[in-house]
Amino acid sequence: MPVSVGPYGQSQPSCFDRVKMGFAMGFAVGMAAGALFGTFSCLRIGMRGRELMGGVGKTMMQSGGTFGTFMAIGMGIRC
User: Fold this and answer.
1) pTM for this model (two decimals)
2) Where does the chain cross the membrane (predicted)?
3) Cβ–Cβ under 8 Å, residues 63 and 31
């Protein structure tokens, strides 16, 4: 696929750049959702202190990675 050049000589991002951007956006959204859901679920089962921080961090990383992966796949399909 030829790269179209916009005004002022700007080129569009490549497909790999779009996939990376999709993963980054999905990871950020997943981390925010994981912070909310992880905090509530860990508090509900009675975690406190260091255990709470570990549980919330684990949930944030899991949801961020999952959502980021699906967003990257979606951006790959789009280009």
Assistant:
1) 0.80
2) 23-43
3) yes
